[in-house]
Amino acid sequence: MAASSNSSLSGSSVSSDPEDYQPPIWKSYLYQLQQEAPRPKRITCPQEMESRPKYYGREFHGLISREQADELLAGTEGAYLIRESQRQPGTYTLALRFGGQTLNYRLFYDGKHFVGEKRFESVHDLVTDGLITLYIETKAAEYIAKMTTNPIYQHLGYTSLLRDKITHRLNRTRSEPKKVTFQQDEKISPSPLSRRTTLKDGPEKHCNYEKIHNFKVHTFRGPHWCEYCANFMWGLIAQGVRCSDCGLNVHKQCSKLVPSDCQPDLRRIKKVFSCDLTTLVKAHNTPRPMVLDMCIREIEHRGLKSEGLYRVSGFTEHIEDVRLSFDRDGEKADISANIYPDINIIAGALKLYLRDLPIPVITYDVYSRFIQAAKITDPDSRLEAVHDGLLQLPPAHYETLRYLMTHLKRVTMYEKDNYMNSENLGIVFGPTLMRPPDLNTLTTLNDMRYQKLIVQLLIEHEDILF
Ligand SMILES: [Zn+2]
Ligand SMILES: [Zn+2]
Questions:
Q1: Going by fewer Cβ within 10 Å, which terminus of the chain is more open, N or C?
Q2: Is the pLDDT of residue 42 over 60?
C-alpha cells in the first residue's frame, strides 16, 4: 500500500506553465488508517469514588492496582480508565488497551489534560488522539519515515499547493516583474555636496531574499493534507504546523525540510512596525522596508538642514500617529509636510521603526562580531573586521543598512547647518541598529560606545557597503 502510494506520485510531473497546472494527488493511506484506528471505550467505575478529582468523570477508579486495571479493561482495544497511583498517591495514571497490551501513562491536568506535548479539553479527546497516533505510527512507521522522500512541494516550486493560492500567485507573477527592480528615486533632490546625486542601486543578489517560514503548531478543523509530502495530517489536535506568514500547512517533520522560500501574504501581515524586516520586504516586494524609503525621502526633501536632525525629538504622540498610519495604510501612509510639518516627527518615526524591529538591523547573530571589531585599535584591521561582519547579515538587513548609511552620510554633509556629524549620529543610531542578544544592563552600558563607534565608522566609510 505504502509503496504504490509513493510511486504513483513520483511519476507525476507538474509543469511550471500555469495552463498545465495539475492539482496535487493527495495521498489517502494515512487518512484511511485514521478511520480504522480503534475508538475509545470508557470503562466506568460502578461506585462513586470520594477521592475523584472534579476534572475526572466515572472513568476514575481510585486506588486500584495495575493488575486490577488490566482485568477491568478486559483486553478490549481502545478501553481506558484512570486510576490513582499506588506508589505515588495524588498522581494519576491513564491505563489504555492498545496492540494487545495495557499501556500506562502518567496523566496531568493544568486546566487541560495531557500525557505529552499536546493538551486536550477532555480525557476522551486525549484518548481518541492517542489511539489514532499509536495506530498510525505503529502500522505505518516505515511509510512515515519515507513519506518526505518524494515531496510534491518541489514539483510545484512554491509554498502552497492549494489551487486558490497557486492561482493567486500566478496572477501576481504575471502582472508584476518577477524580480524587484531598484528604481532611481527622482523625488530626492540632488545635493550639490553629494558625490552621488541619488542612492545607488544595490547589487541584484539583494532582491531575491530567502525567508524561512514561521511555523507554529496548529489544530486543523476537519481533515487536512500536508502541502509538502501530500500525506494526511493525522490526529485530533495539533496535527501539524502552519506558517503564520504565508499559510503553508505541513507535518511537523516535513517543516524541517521545506525550503526557505516563504512568500508572506499581505493579508496575514497585519503590521508594518514590529514586523520582521525580511518578512515585510518580501510581503511588499520591495528591496527595503518602505518606511525607510518614505521617511528618508521626506527628510532629504525638507529636513537636511534642520538643526539637531535625529537628535531633537518630535512629539511622542505625533510619532505614534505616524506609526499607526504606516500600520494601517502601508505605502499609502501620508507623511507629507501638510500633515507633519515638523521633520523631527518623521526622523523620530524612522528611529522608532528601526528600534521596534524584532531582530535589529545588525542582527543578534553578528552582534558580538561587530563589538569585537570595534575593539580593534588598528584602523585598517578594524575596517576589515567590520566588512567581514557585514557579509554575515541577511540580504534585506544589509540593503537596509546600506541605504541608511548613504543617507546619514548625506546628513553629515550639512553639518554646518544641522550640527550633526558622524559621531553624533553614531550616538543616536548605535543602540537603534545594534542590540545585544542578552538584555543584561551592564553589557548594554558597556557596549554603547562600541555601538556608536561602529555606526560612526559605517557612516564615514559607507563605501564598504557597496
Ligand atoms: Zn511561510
Ligand atoms: Zn508532510
A1: N
A2: yes
